[in-house]
């Protein structure tokens, strides 16, 4: 079910984004927008360029061509500056500080929002103590929000998998983003954990944070998203509501591997299969001699 939302001004605007690695064009001339109040999905078969595109948005890669704007301003090409500007992300593989507590992990996520400098931190002056208390309070709020408050003192590595992924979201939220980018948030989850993640993402959106999510679980994506874009071989093939995208024949073909333009005809494939069958008969006969 797609929840009704009031969508507003663009939060993220990517224009003509292209990313080349040597001779390989991983992302080709992609225009893409996320508006406030929206949950937008990015899908595509393996190797379609989703993560590369994400990395272009979040400053990990400098796109070969194109621009990325957050709330109208071109983003700097440094991940920590992108986070500071208001875009936070999680990664395909969990990247928590395993030997730190749950609370400490969220506090680390707040560093882009605290103004206290090195000397203030070292001298632990009144400004630092006040900022530290405010950060602690906000981190605990986020742990309440994500359902992890009771585990604030546990080491991150001791959390079950689903809760580690929630903690990643809590840590990303600690930078007070206007846009949250989630890279395969339900990978490896059981159905209950996936359902809980869906609820959490709806709740994030209801807090006024736009969400962009890459995911392979189609049921999850089509339930969750107001809008979905499908990348294939680096290009945006289709974009629209969940209903439009899931019934688009080009999307179905891209996922099911239905023959594409330029693929060998059925008759050509039949010839190859016949030749292979003849070859295997010959070699079997050879073996029996
Ligand atoms: N750093 C890199 N250097 C060279 N080629 C890369 C690099 N990163 C990605 N690629 C290539 O770019 C293409 C797109 O990869 P990408 O990981 O973005 O796809 P994806 O849609 O995220 O795939 P998956 O769903 O499997 O994670 C692939 O052909 C990949 O091999």
TrEMBL record:
Query: What is one cellular component GO term in this UniProt entry?
Result: plasma membrane
Instruction: Please state every residue range assigned to the domain named ABC transporter.
Output: 12-258
KW Transmembrane helix (keyword) present: no
BP terms from Gene Ontology: D-alanine transmembrane transport; L-alanine transport; L-isoleucine import across plasma membrane; L-valine import across plasma membrane
Alphabetically sorted, this entry's keywords are: ATP-binding, Nucleotide-binding, Transport
What Pfam families does the annotation carry? ABC_tran, BCA_ABC_TP_C
Question: What InterPro entries has UniProt attached to this entry?
Answer: AAA+_ATPase, ABC_AA/LPS_Transport, ABC_transporter-like_ATP-bd, BCA_ABC_TP_C, P-loop_NTPase
Q: Name one GO molecular function term.
A: ATP binding
PANTHER family reported for this sequence: AMINO ACID ABC TRANSPORTER ATP-BINDING PROTEIN, CONSERVED COMPONENT OF ABC TRANSPORTER FOR NATURAL AMINO ACIDS-RELATED
Q: Please identify the protein, giving its name as recorded.
A: ABC transporter ATP-binding protein
Species this protein is from: Streptomyces beijiangensis
Traced from the root, the source organism's taxonomic lineage reads:
Bacteria, Bacillati, Actinomycetota, Actinomycetes, Kitasatosporales
């Amino acid at each position: 079910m797609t929840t009704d939302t009031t969508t507003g001004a663009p939060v993220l605007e990517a224009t003509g984004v292209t990313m080349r690695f040597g001779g390989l064009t991983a992302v080709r001339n992609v225009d893409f927008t996320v508006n406030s109040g929206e949950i937008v999905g990015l899908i595509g078969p393996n190797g379609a360029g989703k993560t590369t595109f994400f990395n272009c948005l979040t400053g990990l890669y400098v796109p070969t061509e194109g621009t990325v704007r957050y709330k109208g301003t071109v983003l700097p090409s440094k991940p920590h500056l992108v986070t500071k500007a208001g875009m936070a992300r999680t990664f395909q593989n969990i990247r928590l500080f395993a030997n730190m507590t749950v609370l400490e992990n969220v506090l680390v996520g707040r560093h882009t929002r605290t103004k206290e400098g090195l000397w203030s931190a070292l001298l632990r002056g009144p400004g630092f103590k006040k900022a530290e208390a405010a950060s602690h309070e906000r981190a605990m709020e986020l742990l309440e929000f994500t359902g992890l408050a009771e585990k604030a003192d546990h080491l991150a590595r001791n959390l079950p998998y689903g809760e580690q992924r929630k903690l990643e979201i809590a840590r990303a939220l600690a930078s007070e983003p206007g846009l949250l980018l989630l890279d395969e948030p339900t990978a490896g989850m059981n159905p209950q954990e996936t359902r809980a993640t869906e609820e959490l993402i709806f709740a994030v959106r209801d807090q006024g944070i736009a969400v962009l999510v890459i995911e392979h679980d189609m049921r999850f994506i089509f339930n969750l998203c107001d809008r979905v874009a499908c990348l294939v071989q680096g290009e945006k093939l289709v974009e629209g509501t969940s209903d439009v995208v899931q019934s688009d024949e080009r999307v179905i073909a891209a996922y099911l591997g239905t023959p594409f333009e330029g693929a060998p005809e059925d008759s050509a494939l039949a010839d190859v299969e016949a030749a292979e069958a003849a070859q295997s008969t010959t070699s079997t006969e050879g073996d029996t001699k």
